[in-house]
Amino acid sequence: MASSLQRISSHARLLRTAIASGSRPFSADALVEYRPGEIGRVSGIPDEHLRRKVVIYSPARTASQQGSGKVGKWKINFVSTQKWENPLMGWTSTGDPYAHVGDSALGFDSEEAAKYFAENHGWDYVVKRRHTPLLKVKLYADNFKWKGLPKTEA
Question: pTM score, two decimals?
Fold first, then answer.
């Protein structure tokens, strides 16, 4: 048993010296720079889906929720024109494999990140600006405060 432990420790020592002497520090020549649109070609996406048109937008808050869960998030949605009505059930059908991808998967923390992602995949994009309404600060107590004498009609 002692000989097997010595053998393992000697192998580990040899391995450490081989790695330390043969390794080179991380260098910039190992990095690969991608040009815009090149990621799509490398990833194996079919050619007909490389030149897609997408819409970058910030989704509005859900009407029933007053929290700030989706505020400040950005999404990418694919513009799809290949839709038809199913004659049997009346459902809307599509032949586009990316029709529902943007609703669930492509979310970003900033507009710039979404633009960068679209440019790297070679997609033409349109940015829909967010309309943020100005909110007045309201207090519940304002419903009961004194507003002066009632106005009389003359």
Answer: 0.55
